[in-house]
Amino acid sequence: MNDRYLYRAKRKDNGEWVIGHLITDMQDKDKCFIGYVFGANDDGTPHDFDIVPVDPSTLCQCSGYKGIWENDIFQCDDERYKIVFCENTLTWCAESIFYSDSIELGEFSDYEIDVIGNVFDNPELLEAE
Hints:
The chain has 129 residues and is an all-beta fold. The chain has strands spanning 7-10, 17-24, 32-40, 46-54, 60-61, 72-76, 79-86, 91-96, 102-104, 114-118.
């Protein structure tokens, strides 16, 4: 499975993060759900699955890089960056928290990206030290 099609968001019932596929209500776009399968028969038919309502304000798409999600914050040298999708270039970018620039995520090596939190659980990381 290709991770870039996965989403994560906080469950409405308990605030825990859940990862799976995004499902939206065609009648009400403010209703979002994450669905995931956790058991399947040998022929691939799912027998255990769940669909949970999530807070749409916490939706984050996987960037396609292992373990790196939209709205994650990472440290590289002395700079902090937030992962965002750049509409003008249609690529994942690292937006500087302290300066007004962004760099395509692909410009960083794997070892340079050390995720230290996200904007929802660690808003203090968005502030200057």
